[in-house]
Each structure stands twice: as C-alpha cells, then as structure tokens.
Amino acid sequence: MPLLPDTSAPIIFLHFPSTLILLCSTCAVTGGHALLLNGEYPWTYDNDLFGGPDFWGLMHKHWRMCKLGALQSPINIDPTKLIFDPQLGKLRISQIHVEAELWNMGQFPLLTLATKNTTTTETGGGSGGEKREEQKQQQTVLNIAGGPAHPYTYQMQQIVVHFGDVRRGERGSEHTIDRVRFPAELQILAFNSDLYDNFTQAQSQPRGLLGIAIIIDIGDRTNAELHRLSQATKHIKHRNQMVRIKRFQPAALVPPTEHYVTYDGSMTYPGCFETVTWLVFNSPIYISIEDLAQWGELVQSEMAESEAKTETGAPPPVPLSSNYRPLKASNGRALRTNINTRLKSVSDGGQCPSRMYVDMGYRTNPARTDTKVPSSPHSLSRQEKSADARTKREQRQQKRERIPEEEVRMFGMGVTDQMDSDPTESDQMESDQEGEAEDLLPKTGVDHHPNLALNNCVVPSMAFDECSLL
C-alpha cells in the first residue's frame, strides 16, 4: 500500500476553520483508520479524521441524512419522556437455528445470517437406469413480528456489535439510558419482508427496517450465544476475515423480558436512512470481562498490513474499538413503552384502602449504579438542553432537603447517606466529566418518595427487577 497519494490523481483541497484536509480520488489511507464502504468512500468512527461521524453526511450524496436528518439514531432514552402505549404487544422471534458468518468489517463486527439451505438428492433414472441429482432450496427464515413491528413481518438479516475501547475500559453502547452508557450493545437488524424483497431495497424505504437494541452489561457468566460469538472473534482479528458459525440461534440473544421502549429512528452507520423502527429492551444480557476482552483484540487493518507494520517497527494496528456513533438529538420524538406504571396497591390489614391507583412517572432503576455520559451540546435539542439544566437544579435542591427521620422509618430505607451530602458537594457534582456522575437515587429496588404517602399507607411504585434498566 503506497504511503503517499498518486501525484497524477486529481487533488481537492477542503478548507475548514483551522483545518486543511487533502483528498484525492485514488488516495490510500494508511493506519487502518479510514476504511472503504463498497470500495468507494472511506468512513470511520474516529471524528479526528475526515471520514468520522461528523463528516459522513459530506462524503456521499446518498449519505446526506447523516447530517441533515431529524430522526437520527442512536439517542438517549430519557425516562421522564416515556409514553405508555397499551397497544404495544409482545415481540415474537423465530426460535430456530441458522448458519451464520461473523465478519471483521474494519469498522465493526458483523454477523450475517444465512436464509437459504441447498440440499442435493439422488433419484432413480429412466429406462437406462441412470441416476439424476436434484437440488432443492429449503428456505430458513428468521421472522420477527408483534410489538412495534405490527402489522408487518420482518426478516432478520444481520447483527452488529458495538463496544468501546475495551483496553481502556471505555463503554461503547450506542443507546444510553438516562445518559448512562453501557459496556456494549448488540443490534439485530431485520427488513420488512411484507413490503420489500431484500435488505438493500428496504433500508431506504418507509417502514423498511426493524432494529432491536440489546444492552450488554458485565456479569459473571456470558450469554451462551454471545459467548460463542466472543470465542469466534479469535478467527477474525483482521479486517475482511470471516468465520462460519453453525446452528446459531439469534433468539437466544434476546433478554428474558417483554418490556421495551420503541421509537422511530435511523441506521447508525452510513447512509443513516431514517427507516428504522427501534426497539430497546429494558433488560440487558451479560458478558464476562474475559469475553469482552476478546472483542478488544480485533483490529481495523488487514493481516498483511498488520504484519508489515510489525516488520518495519511502525505503530501497531489500530484496534476495532470505540465503534459507536455519538448520540443524536431526539427532536421531540415519541418514546413509547409497554412498561405500565399505573399500579394497584396491596391490602395492608385493613388499615389502607385496597384499591389505590397512582400514575407514576418513569425513572431509571435505582438499584443500578452506572456512570452517566456527559451531555454533549451536539446531541441535545434546545428544549432538551433547557430540560437537562432544570433537572440538574431540581436534583441539587432535592439533595439539600433532608428526609425527616419519621418518613425514613415509614418507608424502611434504613440509611439515608444518599440524601445527606453537604450542599457544597452537590454544587461540585455539576462537572460534565465522565466518571463523575450524580448518584441521587436511593440504592434500593423500590421507588421511595415521601410524596407517595397517603393516610400513612405506602403506595408501591414500579416493581423494579434488579436487572432492569428502567
């Protein structure tokens, strides 16, 4: 691979503030940073390079939505903006095994699912006794229906894995929950097989794609099918390498929950077509630290290029990591959910009414203690910026107001060190640096709030699963 562009090729100079970017029609970009999509244009997740997410919309006429679109993904799932939709049913996924191919695409790992199996059979011949071979194609289709997919059926086509710089402990989920980013995210992409013939046709058409976002969190034991994928990465360390996986069951990657959030969005890589109905499950699947480290061994360059770097003493290959797109503004999109917070209280020995209903707002699971992602001005609309600032002011005020001891006993909180921080410490928590998150929620499985007391009766809020995200 040449280190310098061909001087005979046409040269284009693009001027940006304090930046000079050199392009040419036949330039070869070294270092594994900028890679080719369909052999045409280089793109990457590194915003320090021309080809990063901020430049996707400038690189190809069919990628303009990456810059101009108002329904872009990923987004932050704000619990205070969720809308309960009783019409959202259970998602149904085919429980079958298929042949799959795991690729190192140079930008992210991609699992493609085979949908056709060819079988050969021998049959008897005619009067001459000769035998004939007949080939039959047996269609194996992974269908997804129900939930936000209704009334259509979608055919599962591919699975993408996003993660951060594993070696540095960076979190790399694309979607965030209340500004909390998780270690990784697995995205199942399916096309509308009722309206379109294939994924390529559907990706740019209305109601074309269904995206299922599955948050990956750290646990003691890895999800069984995710473990198989993690082990298979040993065979695809370099770009364009592929390994086949037999009898793979994609449905086993789905967490054991019926609860989710859905919204209208886009593909999270070029060309960012706004044709995706996204579904984000409310529970994660788990991966061990050892298995997550396997994904961190992938690199962006091909094997020959990596070997050449080693021989010449050049910098090592660039890891295939931090492969997540920055958050995009929600722009007032409806965030619908099937999580119902309108609950009925239980009887308390006759002391309390047996039927009390309360409309609860949504919030993140207080049992979780995850780090929040700093709010980026590029990913927030004007209304969201104002709401974000207002929320921070309210949270600081709540921390200054101690819960009376009698109310603490009533709700059985036991300790209130979460609420006892000094006001000066609250002001210091305004820092937007990642890793300095505001931990204002009580570490318990039930939402305790003094305003929910009615006639000295405890009105339960949403019953949190210890693993749920909301």
TrEMBL record:
SUPFAM superfamilies documented for this protein: Carbonic anhydrase
Gene3D superfamilies (UniProt xref): Alpha carbonic anhydrase
Biased composition (Basic and acidic residues): 381-409
Organism: Heterodera trifolii
The entry's keywords: Signal
Residue ranges, annotated region (Disordered): 116-137, 304-326, 364-447
Domain of life: Eukaryota
Signal peptide start and end residues: 1-34
PANTHER family: CARBONIC ANHYDRASE (PTHR18952), CARBONIC ANHYDRASE XA-RELATED (PTHR18952:SF208)
Protein's recorded name: Alpha-carbonic anhydrase domain-containing protein
Domain Alpha-carbonic anhydrase residues, every copy: 41-339
Sequence ranges of Polar residues compositional bias: 366-380
Family to which the UniProt record says this protein belongs: Belongs to the alpha-carbonic anhydrase family.
Biased composition, class Acidic residues, residue ranges: 419-439
